Recover the amino acids of this structure.
């Protein structure tokens, strides 16, 4: 946490000339990370569609007609098989997403706990994104072996109400607090390209960097506009906007993993290389990110070879802390 960090200070970083910003972020990145390492993660939708919330960007909301078919929670053995395949393909973090508003103490949650235990035994960093949860539920996930929990802020507090009405900004902050309180690594970032202003982007980064404990993982997503959602007509966000977000996040949260997430499918290799230069050091591999398109594994392997990038090992942050 940086209690003296002002929003104006974040704005000054964010609005600096883009080449100067990239250079500064690259310098900070090299002070805290190996610039040739990028973590490869896999995100699997273990329970798809039928969500009661109204997130304007999400094709899994039951109220929107997006063509996403609702499916019940996958079986444990199916998920563990997928995790094994992901590991064999080079992933070191496996994240399981369920289209729930919140976690409920029922048989489905018990199955998720079994999934977490199984993936943990594969020596992968296991992450979940399941909606809101209580501190008691977070503790159960921790005991099952959960390494990280994803709960994005999505945008600034001011713009948030234009995107979601079924969950408050404070609800999100409370869930992040619950997972950090029990010792789970927090993964929290946001989405750009939803119609927000630059000031909203600055506000979100300021909120993340000013948390009592900054997130250990910060996903930066470009909106993938899906037909049938309220944001279906939003234009693709500029790659320079993505780079500006990544670089500012890197400078503000130097030890965090900054994850180049949704929207990567529309980027060229050269654009992705600039994102890595600006401080991104994680990608999601596989054909889909929950329900949206993603580059295929072969394209990512070719990119890694061209850029001389190595996959980051699992649990590296823990090992470094232990030294």
């Amino acid at each position: 946490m940086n209690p003296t960090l002002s929003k104006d200070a974040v704005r000054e970083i964010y609005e600096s000339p883009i080449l100067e910003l990239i250079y500064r972020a690259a310098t900070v990145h090299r002070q805290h990370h190996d610039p040739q390492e990028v973590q490869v993660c896999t995100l699997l939708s273990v329970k798809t569609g039928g969500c009661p919330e109204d997130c304007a960007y999400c094709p899994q909301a039951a109220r929107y007609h997006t063509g996403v078919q609702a499916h019940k929670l996958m079986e444990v053995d199916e998920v563990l098989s997928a995790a094994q395949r992901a590991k064999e393909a080079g992933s070191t973090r496996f994240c399981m997403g369920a289209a729930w508003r919140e976690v409920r103490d029922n048989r489905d949650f018990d199955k998720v706990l079994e999934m977490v235990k199984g993936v943990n035994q594969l020596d992968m960093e296991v992450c979940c994104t399941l909606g809101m949860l209580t501190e008691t539920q977070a503790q159960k996930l921790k005991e099952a072996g959960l390494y990280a929990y994803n709960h994005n802020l999505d945008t600034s507090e001011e713009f948030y109400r234009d995107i979601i009405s079924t969950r408050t900004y404070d609800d999100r902050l409370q869930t992040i607090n619950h997972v950090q309180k029990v010792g789970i690594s927090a993964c929290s970032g946001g989405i750009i390209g939803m119609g927000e202003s630059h000031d909203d982007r600055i506000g979100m980064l300021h909120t993340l960097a000013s948390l009592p404990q900054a997130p250990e993982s910060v996903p930066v997503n470009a909106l993938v506009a899906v037909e049938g959602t309220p944001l279906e007509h939003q234009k693709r966000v500029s790659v320079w906007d993505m780079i500006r977000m990544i670089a500012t996040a890197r400078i503000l949260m130097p030890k965090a993993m900054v994850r180049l997430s949704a929207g990567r499918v529309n980027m060229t290799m050269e654009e992705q290389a600039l994102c890595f230069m600006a401080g991104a050091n994680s990608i999601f591999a596989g054909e889909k990110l929950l329900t949206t398109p993603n580059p295929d594994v072969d394209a990512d392997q070719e990119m890694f070879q061209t850029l001389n990038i190595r996959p980051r090992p699992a649990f590296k942050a823990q090992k470094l802390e232990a030294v």
Remarks:
- The chain is about 40% helix and 15% strand.
